[in-house]
TrEMBL record:
This is Gfo/Idh/MocA family oxidoreductase. Residues 343-363 are annotated as: Disordered. The lineage of its organism: Bacteria, Pseudomonadati, Bacteroidota, Cytophagia, Cytophagales. Transmembrane segments: none annotated. It holds the Pfam family GFO_IDH_MocA_C2. Residues 354-363 have a biased composition (Gly residues). It comes from the Bacteria.
Length: 445
């Protein structure tokens, strides 16, 4: 399993980083097994609640600060934290004060996508280790900067794709590496989610308690609307990346991991809005294809909303195609195989399930992924991370490439070594963005 993970990372460390050499930096703290690790969670409205639980479930880890631009949400979380753990927790609206706090050892980032990379970079510069929710980046350029920061400051950075800590999924990857379904030439990622009409609530005054300038951060400043704060920013290009850059990162990550590939050279994508006359900017339906001519492999990815059929019994997951059979991953922690043209059921596995290996569910999931992160922090050993920063750059970047092809409505040719498009200045401009004021992702981290 370790060789598989390292070979996957090798495909990105060579890309765009020939001059990068990780210096020898003494970590800000060296932790023993009984030393308490103090953590701060950035963004506590949605997924951040799981981050709080995941960290508090770890031995000798204490969440001591909750950070969010919305003081209303912070006060709610503070009350629930006290009720659940019978402990006090400090509140902070500005993440920069969290970075300046020498008592904080690790930060966990569950803020909107447009804040992820800059938060990671600031944390690395402050000598803190980081767990960052998917996607790691809002665009490809800042994903590379995130990798550079982790390397330069010798920090532990874990990407929140918890399926990488699933024993069953690791077993599935190993089966493919061993040739169980033959030569694996194609991966298909599926995101069929129930996404409703969000309407158009128009502009309104910023509610009391929200620091909207901080919420906006690196993105362009737009008039406030409830269609952004707090969840539906996912469906607007300035802040989110659509469902391929939301739920889909789990699947893009697994597609690349399973095929053992990095960035593709050919990308095409097509879709649109077919259901709702609402203010979403991103497509409701999206099909993207990523081709690897040199490796003779291909990735297909599809976002599909509302009423739909399943594929091989799954609506969110992956299907791998080999010349001897297929392997289906359903969700985050189970798989099944079918062999030959007669589709004979083969090996299967599920964390905590009764089929196949019946592995312990506690070893995977969010808690298991945080456990892997904390173990790497204590040992200051990034080689044992299940979802290191390089994989965040790749899996997020694949989603970004598909979105760029969709928005430009043409087939794109990409150079994985330079991480730029081939003779396409218009596409290259979409690899990054104009950053606002004091919230700039630095060119030199």
């Amino acid at each position: 399993m370790e060789l598989t993970r390292r070979s996957f990372i090798k495909k990105t460390t060579a890309a765009g980083s020939a001059a990068i050499v990780a210096p020898t930096i003494i970590p800000s703290k060296v932790f023993g097994a009984n030393d308490r690790i103090n953590a701060a969670v950035l963004g506590v409205n949605g997924r951040g609640k799981n981050h709080i639980t995941g960290l508090m479930n770890q031995k000798n880890v204490q969440v001591t600060i909750l950070c969010d631009p919305d003081m209303n949400i912070l006060k709610e979380r503070q009350k629930s934290f006290k009720k659940t753990y019978n402990k006090d927790v400090a509140l902070e609206q500005d993440l920069r004060r969290v970075m300046d706090n020498k008592d904080i050892d690790v930060v966990s980032i569950a803020s909107p996508n447009h804040w992820h990379a800059l938060s990671v970079i600031w944390a690395c510069q402050a000598g803190k280790d980081v767990y960052v929710e998917k996607p790691g980046s809002h665009n490809i350029w800042e994903g590379r900067k995130m990798v550079e920061a982790a390397q330069k400051y010798d920090r532990i950075v874990q990407h929140g794709v918890q399926l990488r800590s699933s024993p069953a999924i690791n077993e599935a990857i190993q089966l493919m590496r061993e040739g169980y379904i033959g030569r694996v030439y194609m991966a298909r990622g599926l995101v069929f989610r129930w996404r409703a009409d969000i309407g158009d609530q128009g502009f309104s005054p910023v509610p009391e308690g929200i620091d909207y300038d901080l919420w906006t951060g690196p993105a362009p400043m737009r008039p406030f609307t409830k269609n952004l704060v707090h969840y539906n920013w996912h469906w607007h290009w300035d802040y989110g990346n659509g469902d391929v850059g939301n739920q889909g990162i789990h699947e893009t990550d697994l597609c690349m991991w399973g095929l053992d590939v990095g960035f593709p050279t050919k990308i095409t994508s097509m879709g649109g809005k077919f259901l709702w006359d609402d203010c979403k900017e991103v497509p409701e339906v999206l099909t993207s294809i990523y081709k690897y001519p040199d490796e003779d492999k291909i990735i297909q990815f599809e976002v599909r909303p509302w009423c739909t059929n399943t594929e091989e019994g799954t609506t969110v997951g992956n299907i791998f195609y080999g010349d001897k059979g297929i392997l289906v991953v359903d969700g985050y922690d189970k798989y099944k195989t079918y062999l030959g043209k007669n589709r004979k059921p083969g090996k299967s596995g599920e964390d905590g399930g009764e089929s196949g290996t019946g592995m312990d569910r506690g070893a995977g999931g969010t808690d298991g992924h945080f456990a892997n992160f904390i173990d790497a922090v204590r040992k200051h050993d990034k080689t044992i991370l299940n979802g290191p920063v390089e994989t965040a750059h790749l899996s997020s970047g694949l989603a970004h490439l598909g979105n760029i092809a969709y928005r430009l409505e043409r087939v794109l040719t990409f150079n994985p070594s330079s991480e730029t498009f081939v003779n396409d200045p218009e596409a290259d401009r979409m690899l990054t963005r104009n950053y606002r004021g004091e919230y700039v992702v630095p060119n030199k981290v």
